[in-house]
Amino acid sequence: MLIVSAPSGSGKSTIVQWLMNEHPELKLYFSISCTSRQPRGTERNGVDYFFISPEQFREKIDNDEFLEYEEVYENRFYGTLKAQVERQREEGQNVVFDVDVKGGINIKKYYGEEALSLFIQPPSVEELRRRLEGRGTDTPEAIEQRLAKAEYELTFAPQFDNIVVNDNLETAKEETLRIVKEFLG
């Protein structure tokens, strides 16, 4: 299993998508998360997410069915079901978790040596600011919130198995590939 966490704008999604698309031999597949929100656009139940009600989500929490979960907004939950991960593993998939730092740490604690945890780190908070501003998708207030969250998330980096500093995307991709191949043996 591969756990990947990073502050917003660090290049995590770009690196993970590259690994999955360009290296099918790694047999990497995203874990299918569970959410209490409604499907958007073309999202399908059991493919993009498992869509359930907030009440069903709370019941699963009470039954200890999640590896990790978070209530992002009131009654808007996201989480990773233990049973789903086990199903994917039984199918021979190497499961990829694209999660926040706390979720990543919790999954690593649960699976221990069976999971590799990677933290994708920007070269600096200043570079992260430049990237976020360059995207042109966030208001200045949202960028400040993301940067404050990033500074907090960076404090968790030492709890991950490996830290990949993304100061050059091609180098970060190759370093991540090397680490993952070594882990999968």
Please provide a written account of the structure.
With 185 residues, this protein is α/β, with parallel strands linked by helices. It is built from 7 helices and 9 strands. It has helices at 12-22, 54-62, 82-90, 101-111, 125-135, 140-154, 169-184, and strands spanning 2-5, 28-30, 33-35, 49-51, 66-73, 76-81, 94-98, 116-121, 162-165. Strands 2-7-1-8-9 form a 5-stranded parallel sheet, sandwiched between helices. A hairpin with a 2-residue loop joins strand 5 and strand 6 (76-81). The longest helix is centred in the last third of the chain and has 16 residues, at 169-184. The radius of gyration is 17 Å and the shape is globular. It starts with a strand and ends with a helix.
The count of β-strands is 9
Uncertain runs: none
Classify the secondary structure makeup into a structural class: alpha/beta
Instruction: Give the SSE order as H and E letters.
Output: EHEEEHEEHEHEHHEH
Neighbour order of strands in the largest sheet:
2-7-1-8-9
The gist of it:
This protein is α/β, with parallel strands linked by helices and 185 residues long. The protein has helices spanning 12-22, 54-62, 82-90, 101-111, 125-135, 140-154, 169-184; strands spanning 2-5, 28-30, 33-35, 49-51, 66-73, 76-81, 94-98, 116-121, 162-165.
Features:
about 180 residues, 5-stranded parallel beta sheet, alpha/beta
Secondary-structure map with pairings?
Layout (H helix, E strand, L loop, with lengths): L1 E4 L6 H11 L5 E3 L2 E3 L13 E3 L2 H9 L3 E8 L2 E6 H9 L3 E5 L2 H11 L4 E6 L3 H11 L4 H15 L7 E4 L3 H16 L1
Parallel strand pairs: 1-7, 1-8, 2-7, 3-4, 8-9
Antiparallel strand pairs: 3-6, 5-6
Helix pairs in contact: 5-6
